[in-house]
Amino acid sequence: MLQLQHIRENKNGIIDALKKRSLDAEPMLSAILELDEKRRGLQTELDATLAESNKLSKEIGMLFKSGNAAEANALKEQTAGLKEASKKLGEELTSTTSALEEQLYQVPNVPHESVPAGASDEDNEEIFREGDIPKLAEGALPHWELAKKYDIIDFELGVKVTGAGFPVYKGKGARLQRALVAYFLDKNTEAGYTEVQPPHMVNEASGYGTGQLPDKEGQMYHVQADDLYLIPTAEVPITNLHRGDMLSPEDLPIKYTGYTPCFRREAGSYGAHVRGLNRLHQFDKVELVRIERPEASYTALDEMTEHVKVILRELKLPYRILRLCGGDLGFTSALTYDFEVFSTAQDRWLEISSVSNFETFQANRLKLRFKDENGKRQLAHTLNGSSLALPRVLAGILENYQTKDGIEIPEVLIPYCGFDRID
RNA sequence: GGAGGAAUGGCAGAGUGGUCGAAUGCGGCAGUCUUGAAAACUGUUGAGGGUCACACCUCCGGGGGUUCGAAUCCCUCUUCCUCCGCCA
User: Fold this and answer.
1) What pLDDT, on a 0 to 100 scale, did the predictor assign at position A272?
2) Which positions are annotated as binding L-serine (predicted)?
3) Annotated binding-site members of A
């Protein structure tokens, strides 16, 4: 959520920046400012009424104390009108405030100046590429065929037990996945991230805090009996660990890493591009979350990007980095870099990581602040990144490391796996 | 799941209808003293809105109610504690 004060002061700048998202924000922002003005007027009016009423109450109290009941009762009658007025003003204020918030929730984050304008993923800007694309032998298979051939992932079994999009990992497939989780967590903790194991379900307030609610309600599984949501990413519970906090300068930066399953309803889109591990309802992910001072957040974003690069380099997977254009940028993000691994057998790029700076957009909803050296309260910046989304890394490894009669294991994973090939 | 109890400022802990945003202690900050530190003493110290700055308004777990007036009374929800039951 954007800060009202920021909108008041930079309306035109925000409108210009949001054009990169192909969004004409003018009507929205005008409506917001109008509601804001109305809200503040009502607040002032209500305050004055309450002040008057408080004053009378105090006088009544003192009159009673001094035994002057008759005069006190006379004053009581004066309060009736004030009470009526403040009730009415209060109701108006409440409805105006919620109308204002509703509008405010509709406005996406302002893109960073480096974000290119664009309508769709075709306008994303490739900024880095590394690793050789392997030349596979004739008859190279996509990962869902490999999974079957070596009996390491069973999609049909998952359908039987739960439904489509809930695969069962078996034998060396399960072990490889566990190895990846352990390897990522080790790399992240070595880089100074504190490992956390958060809850896999969150309450409504947490959903609002990181921006999944109210807009993307349908993306999350909702456990109605208890009004809880299955997390779509560890970002939600981990960032919410600090919801409402007032941090000290020495607390920052805060760096977390966590492994969780992620649950996404992902209604829509079926077909070749979502085959196998490409898109699932449940998948594993190791996440990075950082809370930073505003002036440090872009350096932090670069650090996270470098960190993910190192991991992909060690896995020897060919990858590229995209700077997302305005049209493809997530609602809450100011700047996002997507990492994509090239899947040779599918002949396409697979998104395996997304690293974003939300600036104060989440912090504003979360009321996540710190008190700086001058005692001034400021919103912190929040960032997160995947490191990494497991199924697609797995897909990339299976496809790029396949040989005629087996799948090699990347060298760095062998100690974690306890075997060096799947056959 | 059943029966009781509790929730107050960074922490501990008073406050059961009227200048209570809240005693007191600890902690924090500033100062005095000291070569320095500690101790002692003095002052100061919650948050949000609002204002150029004041004024003023709101907040005693959340929501609602009674009252001229609520931390205090009523309803409700949540969380925590104790006992019983069940349980990986």
Assistant:
1) 56
2) 233, 264, 287, 384
3) 233, 264-266, 287, 351-354, 384
Task: Check residue A311 and give its pLDDT.
Answer: 95
Based on the residue annotation, tell me whether A95 is a catalytic residue of this protein: no
List chain A domain ranges.
4-105, 121-422
Gap between the Cα atoms of A171 and A54, Å rounded: 72
Helices (H) and strands (E) in chain A, counts: 12, 19
Residue with the two structure tokens 């920021």: A6
* Residue A365 parent element (H or E): helix A361-366
For the CA of A64 and the C1' of B71, the distance in angstroms is 22
The verdict on whether A387 is a catalytic residue reads no
Eight-class DSSP state of A193:
P
Q: Which of these, A354, A306, A298, lies nearest to A114 by C-alpha position?
A: A298
What DSSP assignment string belongs to A209-235? HHT-TTTTGGGS-EETTTTEEE-SSTH
What would the mean pLDDT of A79-108 be, rounded to a whole number?
87
Q: A4-105: what fold?
A: Helix Hairpins (1.10.287)
Q: pLDDT tens digits, residue range A204-237?
A: 888 888 888 877 777 888 888 778 899 999 999 9
Is the CB atom of residue A50 positioned under 7 angstroms from any atom of strand B? yes
User: Helix, strand or coil for residue A359?
Assistant: strand
Choose between A270 and A147: higher pLDDT: A147
The reported pLDDT for the residue numbered A24 is: 93
What is residue A358's predicted lDDT score, i.e. its pLDDT? 94
pLDDT of A248 above 90? no
| A121-422 has CATH 3.40.140.10 classification | no
Question: How is residue A317 written in tokens?
Answer: 């997977």
Neighbours of A329 (CB within 10 A): 24
- Choosing from A86, A354, A356, A386, the catalytic residue is A354
